Amino acid sequence: MAQYTLEEKDSFTVLGIGTELKSHYTDYAGINKEKADFWSAVEQDGRLEALKSIALNDYIFAVSEAVNNKMMYYAGVMTEESVPEESRIIQFPKGEYLIVKGEAKTAEELSNQLAGIAFGQVLPEANDIAYVGGPNTAVEMGQRDGVVFGEMWIPVVRK
Predict the structure, then answer these.
(1) CB–CB of 69/148 below 8 Å?
(2) What is the pTM of this model?
């Protein structure tokens, strides 16, 4: 089984700018293309820089959340401020989180890798925990030696 830890976290909020993912939830290639196109757009139009300028730390959050039966995806930061663009305050619950750590050449590769390990390996094989919904996030925490490193945070409950 892939390496993971369980960690208790206080509730926290992320301010995100988002998009609805239209691909079927099993169409990983389609979802990954939509996510890549979204990141490219928010980097090019300055929305990501606007978020980073009001962030409390250097973490960049790639949040997935079901909202009103839609699969939503956000670029976000921890902040107590707001931005003029269409945004959402995403509330993460206090509780236990599945944490998968990793590193990759790009933030996009990191996010895809962490989600693949967490949802494709750890959760299907874990007998004592379950993901029951709510927002989950890949967190880009920084760069070192030419690679991006971070973690996947998924709220879980004990079975």
Answers:
(1) no
(2) 0.93
Please return the burial class of 74, using the count of CB atoms within 10 Å of its CB with bins 0-12, 13-18 and 19+.
Answer: buried
Look at residues 25, 14, 20, 33 and name the one whose alpha carbon lies nearest to residue 108.
33
Residue 83's pLDDT band, with cuts at 50, 70 and 90, is: confident
Name the token pair of 134: 């709510």
Beta bridge partners, 93, equal: none
79: confidence class by pLDDT, cuts 50, 70, 90: very high
User: Rounded CA gap, 13 and 159, in Å?
Assistant: 26
Say how far apart CA 10 and CA 147 lie, in whole Å: 29
Residue 35, number of CB atoms within 10 A of its CB: 22
